[in-house]
Write a structure and sequence with these properties.
Number of helices: 9
CATH class: Mainly Alpha
Distance between the termini: 43 Å
CATH topology: Hypothetical protein af1432
Largest sheet: none
CATH superfamily: Hypothetical protein af1432
Shape: globular
Strand content: under 5%
Helix content: 55-70%
Number of strands: 0
Number of domains: 1
CATH architecture: Orthogonal Bundle
């Protein structure tokens, strides 16, 4: 078995364990979101980052823990790239994501899944505001918008 396969299996297992009991905005198991994001990514190395992409924000996992689990520094750096920092505006976050090739691919996949309104029961005004923010972020990361002025917190 290739090392990348071992790391991908380890990332999948860790995501399943750490997201256990969490639900998304539509009430579904949160790990299903992570699974869909990983499925949208192409390279195995990027899938590893996709499986881990919400762990630092939504669980007790730390970068040091990921390193202790055997994930390479490069993977941890990419996970950090898609983790919004405390006090960081969403536009600044997206600008930072853009600097990581794998992080950018994962964030695009994450945004695509988050914009799928089929997973929501009802659409509130807050949902619509969030969807607009996600759409402008997606368009910026795809190169369809030239600046982040439409990405509002």
């Amino acid at each position: 078995m290739r090392n990348v396969d071992i790391l991908c299996a380890k990332a999948m297992k860790l995501a399943g364990e750490k997201h256990q009991g969490q639900t998304d905005k539509g009430g579904a198991k949160y790990v299903e979101h992570v699974k869909r994001v990983a499925a949208r990514c192409y390279a195995d190395e990027t899938k590893i980052v996709a499986w881990l992409h919400d762990l630092l924000e939504d669980t007790d996992v730390t970068p040091d823990y990921l390193l202790s689990m055997g994930f390479p520094q490069e993977v941890v750096d990419d996970v950090l790239a898609v983790t919004r920092q405390e006090g960081e505006s969403y536009a600044d976050f997206i600008l930072r994501v853009e600097q990581s090739e794998r992080g950018k691919e994962v964030k695009i996949a994450d945004l695509e899944d988050n914009m799928d309104i089929r997973r929501l029961n009802d659409l509130s005004e807050e949902d619509c505001r969030r969807l607009r923010k996600y759409l402008h972020s997606w368009r910026y990361l795809r190169g369809l918008e030239k600046d982040t002025s439409k990405i509002l917190d």
